[in-house]
Amino acid sequence: MGIRIVIDSTSDVTDEIIQKYNIKMVPLTVNFEKESFLDKIELSSKEFFEKLAVAEKLPTTTLVSPGAFVEAFSEVLIEGDQVLGLFIASELSGTYDSACMAKNMIGSDGIHIIDTRSACLGAFALILEAIKLVKQNKTIEEIVKELEGLKEKVVAVAAVDTLKYLEKGGRLSKGQAVIGSLLSIKPIIEIKDGKISVIDKIRGKNKTIKWFDEWIEKNNYDLSDKPVLLFHGRSYENLKLLREAIEDKYKIKSIIEQEVGAVIGTHSGPGVLGIGFVNK
Hints:
Blueprint: E1 3-8, H1 15-20, E2 24-26, E3 29-31, E4 36-38, H2 45-54, E5 60-62, H3 66-78, E6 82-87, H4 95-106, E7 111-115, H5 121-135, H6 140-150, E8 154-159, H7 164-168, H8 174-177, E9 185-192, E10 195-203, H9 208-219, E11 227-232, H10 236-246, E12 254-259, H11 262-268, E13 273-278
Parallel strand pairs: 1-2, 1-6, 6-7, 11-12
Antiparallel strand pairs: 3-4, 3-5, 8-9, 8-13, 9-10, 11-13
Helix pairs in contact: 3-4, 5-6, 9-10
């Protein structure tokens, strides 16, 4: 009996990794006014941002239904494998609760579900740890215990052009989002313990790369022994600049680049630039 990792689309795991490790991805849904699309299945990042640019109203997102998880989990169990599910923070989406409902509906001991307490690149970083542990042939109980201990060590920080998307989507209060409307202010947000918070603000868009560099140095992060995730939303030029600034300086073991998908893009908007890793 093997272990199959099941994820939702908000972790934005690359297609290459999904295929290489036979990961099952269950998509959330993005809703424009008259159309709905399964994230990554029916709408790519490129297509999403093109639609967002001309949309009169901001899109909304819909969680994964318990029924969709019942179908996904059942397929894995029928193939003789156990389910190791890692999903977006329960504070940010009802997707994790849907997965728990599906587990209860199926009633199998072969389903183990983890609330990553993160999203996007933070959840992706934890999923990379899960892949590593599965490859080490640990039992699913051992893997779950280790991942639960690693959750608090996940680091996920991003610079966004505006907070209006997070505020409109209900992920930040209007008071927290006021900063985003100030002239030439680029907010820095952190996803930690299931919450999104503004941890700093930069004056002038050209200072983002410098901020990340100084932040790594100030926190004395050792990036030489771990994969580092660099994410962007229609901002690949800035991602390249960030990579050039930090890759050799901090002797980074490996870097995985990715563009945020439609669900995360709905809440971050274009222009986002982020970094994530497990600080252990």
